[in-house]
Design a protein that fits this description.
Radius of gyration: 23 Å
Distance between the termini: 28 Å
Oligomer: single chain
Strand content: under 5%
Low-confidence stretches: 1-21, 422-444
Shape: globular
Helix content: 55-70%
Order of helices and strands: HHEEHHHHHHHHHHHHHHHHHH
Structural class: mainly alpha
Largest sheet: 2 strands, antiparallel
Number of strands: 2
Mean pLDDT: 84
Length: about 450
């Protein structure tokens, strides 16, 4: 009788590294696309320093088209990638909802353009996740984000006209690097800091390079004076290490710790809702009401209730100019309500919440490395947090790319976990000694 393999993962092709997407040229293409869709260098390619205004850039439009074509090509040239992407339906539901909202949009053409950009961002992220192995994809994302932070520091020093907010702007003197606004750089540098503090050794084998990248990200955080970016860095780092610890515990302890984590999240939410955390923002040098924004959020919500509350005003249709003119909302949840109404917003948030739920289930599984299993849960959790003070749901941004990658990972890892479980049952039935051996290994 041939020996029985006790390592189930070794016998499943779905967890093997997809080398067809791992060559240098392919990774370079994905890195360039990430920079374009982050989006970086808009202030260089579409900003006129003479009139201090942005304009349409043919180069950026061409870059978006190339990202879409590249993503589609990467998917279609691999049968495995094509099959896996087609099984991941949630991102396509979001795209379909965006295009569908053209039917009731205040500005159908603007909705069409924004929906196309969402399609490009989503297809590119799916291609990257499907063609690269899990560690390779995470490594590429962290390295590219670190590189953008380094470029931002260079732009501030050598090209301050683009890298620093001009004196006529509200945020005069604050860093924006290769982004159009200091909040864009703040969010990216916050995410980069958190990812480097956890995945730094995966991204860079050299400690010198790793600390250099981390120093650049922190410098960008300081230069932007972004309270949101600082909180992102702190929360993301803490949740990564907490969930990593949970994922390495024996299963019964994992369930108890995971329940405690959800309870802690609920407590923080209630404290925020009842304004018990208003003391935090002044500690960071910011107003407790987020520069007056929280004061008019109820007014905007009330206007939405009287303006097609079921379906909203259409995705990126400029509904804000009708419902909340001359106001900067900066809240992703209100933006969802304004765009899709209560019906569409419920669909979007259900997809996001379901991914978090699947991510929590992955924390209890035995498949894959713990550092990879916790990725979807933590990314989706931080996205829920970011959108309290930033409107990043379904935008052309690194946030949307991370969300799509997380949705794909959650779906794929869950499938692999189910295959592991089914295979374990088969082996245990045919070889009773297997179950005892596997149980012993799970606690080592």
């Amino acid at each position: 009788m041939p020996p029985v393999s006790t390592t189930v993962a070794d016998r499943l092709p779905v967890v093997q590294d997809r080398s067809s997407g791992g060559n240098t040229l392919t990774r370079f293409g994905f890195a360039l696309g990430l920079i374009v869709l982050m989006p970086a260098f808009v202030n260089v390619l579409a900003f006129d320093p003479v009139v201090m205004a942005f304009h349409n850039s043919k180069i950026l439009q061409l870059a978006n088209v190339l990202c879409c074509v590249y993503g589609i090509a990467m998917i279609l040239t691999s049968r495995e990638a094509t099959n896996n992407v087609l099984r991941c339906r949630a991102p396509f539901v979001l795209i379909g909802l965006a295009f569908l909202s053209m039917l009731w949009s205040y500005d159908p053409y603007s909705t069409l353009r924004a929906s196309y950009v969402l399609l490009t961002t989503t297809v590119f992220a799916l291609a990257m996740a499907a063609r690269l192995s899990y560690p390779t994809c995470v490594r590429l994302i962290v390295r590219t984000m670190s590189f953008v932070c380094v470029l931002s520091v260079i732009w501030v020093i050598f090209f301050p006209l683009y890298g620093v907010h001009p004196n006529i702007f509200l945020h005069a003197g604050l860093w924006r690097g290769v982004f159009t606004h200091k909040q864009g750089l703040g969010v990216v540098s916050g995410l980069t800091t958190g990812l480097l503090l956890f995945y730094g050794s995966l991204a860079f084998s050299s400690a010198i390079v790793r600390f250099g990248a981390l120093g650049s990200a922190i410098a960008c955080l300081v230069g932007t004076q972004s309270a949101t970016g600082l909180l992102i860095a702190i929360v993301l780092t803490v949740t990564f290490y907490i969930t990593y610890h949970i994922a390495r515990l024996p299963v019964p302890q994992r369930k108890a710790m995971l329940s405690a984590l959800f309870g802690l999240i609920a407590v923080f939410y209630m404290a925020f809702h009842f304004q018990l955390l208003d003391f935090v923002m002044p500690l960071l040098g910011k107003d407790a009401d987020l520069t007056g924004r929280t004061g008019f959020w109820p007014w905007v919500m009330n206007n939405i209730r009287y303006s097609n509350p079921l379906l909203g005003g259409g995705f990126s249709s400029g509904w804000e100019e009708i419902i909340a003119p001359d106001q900067s909302i900066d809240n992703g949840y209100i933006e969802l309500l304004g765009s899709f109404g209560y019906l569409g917003a419920t669909i979007v948030l259900t997809i996001y919440a379901r991914t978090i739920w699947i991510g929590s289930k992955l924390l209890l599984s035995q498949s894959q490395d713990a550092a990879i299993r916790i990725f979807p849960f933590n990314i989706m959790l931080i996205e829920f947090f970011i959108n309290i003070t930033e409107a990043n749901f379904m935008t052309k941004s690194i946030n949307s790319i991370l969300v799509v990658v997380s949705i794909y990972y959650a779906a794929r890892l869950r499938t692999e976990f189910n295959l592991h479980s089914a295979d374990r049952v088969t082996l245990a039935t045919k070889h009773p000694a297997f179950l005892q051996n596997a149980h012993g290994r799970s606690h080592r």
